């Protein structure tokens, strides 16, 4: 029995890396029956069936550090949230959903503002400043020209990193630039409606160097935060935390209450109005 790292799952055939070699593996029935089917990022115990043909059977999955349901991934250490400045336009509501969800799962987020060549510097800086003030790392990129790729690469070392964002934001082009080859299929933007057509259908991990992997994913177009109790949502807007102790009510929603530390901080300009408005919208969904 050997231990391996699951790179992908296509039609229940798993690519598993064991000691720098890739094996094609099936999963033992009892794993699926226990609703623990392997996903990309899993650490698996593998019984080698044929060393020459590089085939095996996954017999057990080790306990996961984290698990994301859509798309299915495990043991991710960080996620780069790619936002397109234009075509498609920035979806900051989705970004804030993702940030809250990653905080909930203790996964480090990095924000990537892509297609900076298509937007005015002032608007780019407005978004950048909103999130850097909160404490997030923000990287500006132009995937087509390779701008910001070096800075992005530096964030990847010794991490299992997923790329997330709406279709067409440039995830595949960024990954291609990082890998230096056309490994992923680039998304195509519809000229009719300027919205992305999703081209990635499976999660697949690519190895960059020792202990460093990146994932191409179908994105989070159906992403929701139903796993987070509505009463707990404010905790995952991290700039709210320091002001929540000043609220009069323990179960303060930070929306309708009068004696609210978060709303007072908002009035004093310590919290972004746009972020707060999106919090209220998410709270109500």
Description:
By secondary structure, this protein is α/β, with parallel strands linked by helices. Helices cover 25% and strands 28% of the residues. The chain has helices at 29-33, 92-104, 121-134, 149-154, 171-179, 241-244, 261-267, 273-284; strands spanning 2-10, 13-18, 21-27, 43-50, 55-61, 67-68, 73-74, 78-84, 108-114, 137-140, 160-164, 188-189, 196-197, 204-209, 212-216. Strands 10-9-8-11-15-14 form a 6-stranded mixed β-sheet, sandwiched between helices. α2 (92-104) crosses α8. The chain starts with a strand and ends with a helix. Residues 184-200 have low confidence and may be disordered.
Largest sheet composition: 6 strands, mixed
Could you give the order of strands across the largest sheet? 10-9-8-11-15-14
Q: Are there runs of 5+ residues with pLDDT below 50, and where?
A: 184-200
Return Rg in Å. 21 Å
Rounded to the nearest angstrom, the distance between the terminal CA atoms is 47 Å
How does the overall form come out from the CA principal axes? globular
The count of β-strands is: 15
Structural class: alpha/beta
Mean pLDDT: 87
Which sequence of SSEs, written as H and E, runs from N to C? EEEHEEEEEHEHEHEHEEEEHHH
How much strand? 25-35%
Helix content: 10-25%
In DSSP terms, counting alpha (H) and pi (I) runs of 4 or more, how many helices? 8
């Amino acid at each position: 029995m050997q231990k391996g790292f699951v790179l992908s799952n296509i039609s229940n055939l798993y690519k598993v890396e064991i000691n720098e070699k890739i094996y094609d593996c099936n999963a033992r029935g009892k794993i699926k029956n226990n609703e623990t089917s392997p996903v990309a990022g899993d650490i698996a115990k593998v019984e080698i069936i044929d060393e020459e043909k590089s085939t095996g059977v996954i017999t057990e999955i080790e306990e996961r550090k984290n698990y994301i349901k859509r798309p299915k991934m495990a043991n991710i250490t960080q996620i780069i949230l790619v936002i397109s400045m234009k075509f498609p336009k920035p979806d900051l509501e989705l970004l804030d959903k993702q940030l809250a969800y990653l905080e909930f799962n203790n996964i480090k987020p990095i924000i990537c503002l892509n297609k900076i060549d298509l937007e005015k510097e002032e608007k780019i800086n407005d978004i950048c400043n909103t999130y850097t003030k909160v404490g997030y790392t923000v990287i500006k990129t132009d995937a087509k020209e390779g701008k910001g790729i070096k800075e992005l690469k530096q964030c990847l070392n010794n991490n299992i990193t997923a790329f997330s964002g709406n279709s067409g934001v440039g995830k595949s082009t960024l990954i291609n630039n990082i890998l230096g080859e056309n490994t992923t299929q680039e998304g195509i933007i519809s000229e009719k409606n300027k919205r992305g057509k999703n081209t990635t259908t499976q999660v697949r991990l690519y190895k960059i160097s020792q202990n460093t992997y990146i994932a191409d994913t179908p994105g989070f177009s159906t992403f929701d935060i139903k796993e987070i109790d509505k009463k707990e949502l404010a905790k995952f807007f991290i700039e709210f935390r320091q002001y929540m102790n000043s609220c009069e009510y323990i179960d303060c929603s930070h929306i309708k209450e009068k004696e609210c530390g978060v709303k007072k901080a908002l009035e004093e300009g310590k919290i972004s109005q746009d972020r707060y408005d999106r919090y209220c919208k998410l709270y109500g969904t």
